[in-house]
Specification:
The structure is a homodimer.
Chain A: H1 8-22, E1 37-41, E2 44-47, E3 52-55, H2 68-80, H3 90-100, E4 109-113, H4 116-131, E5 135-139, H5 148-151, E6 167-170, H6 181-196, E7 200-206, H7 221-231, E8 235-239, E9 264-267, E10 278-282, H8 284-293, H9 304-319, H10 322-343, E11 347-353, E12 356-364, E13 369-370, H11 372-384, E14 387-388, E15 390-392, E16 398-401, H12 409-428
Parallel strand pairs in A: 3-14, 5-6, 5-7, 7-8, 8-9
Antiparallel strand pairs in A: 1-2, 2-3, 4-10, 9-10, 11-12, 12-13, 12-16, 15-16
Amino acid sequence: MTEVTTSPVNASAELLARRQRVLGQGYRLFYQEPLHPVRGEGVWLFDAQGKRYLDVYNNVASVGHCHPAVVDAIARQSAQLNTHTRYLHHAIVDFAEDLLREFPADLDNLMLTCTGSEANDLALRIARHVTGGTGVIVTRWAYHGVTSALAELSPSLGDGVTRGNYVKLIDAPDNYRQPGAFLASVQAALAEMRAEGIRPAALLFDTIFSSDGVFSPLAGEVAQAVQWVRDAGGLFIADEVQPGFGRTGEAMWGFARHQVVPDLVSLGKPMGNGHPIAGLVGKSALFAAFGRDVSYFNTFGGNPVSCQAAHAVLRVIREEQLQQNALWVGHCLREGLQALAQHHALLGDVRGSGLFVGAELVSDRENKTPASAEAVAVVNTMRQRGVLISATGPAGNILKIRPPLVFREEHAALFLDTLDAVLTEVAQR
Amino acid sequence: MTEVTTSPVNASAELLARRQRVLGQGYRLFYQEPLHPVRGEGVWLFDAQGKRYLDVYNNVASVGHCHPAVVDAIARQSAQLNTHTRYLHHAIVDFAEDLLREFPADLDNLMLTCTGSEANDLALRIARHVTGGTGVIVTRWAYHGVTSALAELSPSLGDGVTRGNYVKLIDAPDNYRQPGAFLASVQAALAEMRAEGIRPAALLFDTIFSSDGVFSPLAGEVAQAVQWVRDAGGLFIADEVQPGFGRTGEAMWGFARHQVVPDLVSLGKPMGNGHPIAGLVGKSALFAAFGRDVSYFNTFGGNPVSCQAAHAVLRVIREEQLQQNALWVGHCLREGLQALAQHHALLGDVRGSGLFVGAELVSDRENKTPASAEAVAVVNTMRQRGVLISATGPAGNILKIRPPLVFREEHAALFLDTLDAVLTEVAQR
């Protein structure tokens, strides 16, 4: 008999083969060499071989991987009671009251779901119900979720998803490539709906325009667009699944940057630091009009464990001043990236807000040609060197730099040093 | 200054008032006097006043409220790592392999979501994508979930939800009121689609027909219906969100009762004993055909914590032989109910499978007039006496008796004694 030893790398390869046998083939893995993390702490992930990775990607574990306050809240409530919203429980009420304090007074009601997809889908149902319209305006490379209705509103999923003519696409407010296009396309979308006899139900966008490429509209642009949509009878739904909960630094919610108060605000990803909770905040009159006609019950939505998890996250964001941290370290990150742009021609544009940063790679600054292959190389080389990022946008050439909110200046420095070396290496290939 | 003391009852009233201010007005509470539980253990819930309630309703906490094995699994993995399926992790692979052992060999792939709604919505997307059809056949009082697409397939939500003509309603296999109607209506639905040029995508039903009123089709009826639908180009999606995971006693899945192998099987509620996890099991060829054209990523779906929770539930079901318990105690429950029917004219019919029992109340056995008001009275009086049940069906006159699977003979005896007394009391009013 021979003794067979399996190296850690083989263990990952074996796990990958087993995974491919049992999971639906739609499942994808990040990186040319998939990551196999087994432990997380703060801004660090540790793989099966004990190697540590600086996490500059995961916005879900926003208060840091395995934050003890959140872990404790989940463990404690799980051991005590986990039921549903058809019974009275203090956890949902305490959390709802506390969360709503973070919103303008008009936004005074909460409904809870398990995922951002469920929140956006519910927003859509409410908007269509109360306006009587069907038309929805979304950005050209939007992503809003995985349900049948949201896939239609998520052109970034590709051409495999067909959409009805009641979905109108607008340009994201991309002031690097096409300033002014955003407002012009909103006008065009509304005109098209009028011509086709489609009543608008909503304008829906991610307030940081993440999948489109991370953009900041000019002052007043969003308010103008929202006004036009409201004049035409539609609502404004702010998708805060990615920018919400302090990430943009300037405010708790991304819509505050745009000086508008939405009608409905969907929340998700970082809400429970990875525990599946999401929700919809809105004007009570809208919820009441919907609730009068339609019964809505989400079995897991608003259960005591999920509410305790989300409440712990909210408290940590405040106590550790993570919004302020996002503002400051995000500023340092962008300054650092702009400095790198001085000697790396690949870095065409640096933008974003707080700890949601986009860095656009171009192979030619004059023509702004998207450097898509280089972005793939940068992302994978960074991973080899122990730093996790990703890329976004229609051409996949915009580095997505979006760490947990406990990312500090020292982490930003390590990230920038690594990126500096990797940009040099990739440019020389 | 006067000292103000608040009684526990007032505390619940105050909590209710606070709840109504902050939660969307669509939220409903069970019972004329809402329940305010603060602790759960096994088949028991304890309210804020320390009173205990026998839980004969909650199918989500299926291995018992706060089962230590599930609580531990959640607490341990939460403290270690919680990420997503774009990284390799053993928990999802171990769970998927183990879960798929419980299915016929044809059903060889798993996709994970957070809720049964997401699972059914994904099933629908896949069915429409691979068949090229849009038509869906559901029962007349079906409930399949809360998304825009599923609300259309859930007529039990009421007339506030409009549906397209590609949704066709069939009669549930109700052999108490209308034997034979099920198959005839499937034929009629398919004929209607042919006449309207609608291609069928799927036949979708809950294999225990819960919202319709808890029914058991005659042998061969379901197989015949599925054959007709497949001949017309559609798939059969088994909604196992309620009957799955051993509840029906005879088998792990409700579809086994009907001697058919579905194309897709949606799972949910009891899967994580209250932790938000759900999923879709199906033929790998279907997932592959969908995955080739459409990108699907569910942020929280299949995260390590959810997988550990669900894996713990699966192990407990096996180790504590809960399917066998459901078979035996369900049998005792139905025998006991049939004995009660000897001297309670209200009890018109007793049916179900395992620990999913329906008891239909009629004010007149000859005409089978639904005793809807009496059902409300029975449910509320039972609650006053410390036993939790609910009612279902279009007329709300069918008692829904559906306890955690750790419900034993002694609990069945307590339930039956209480129901006996309550039926006497309600009949005398």
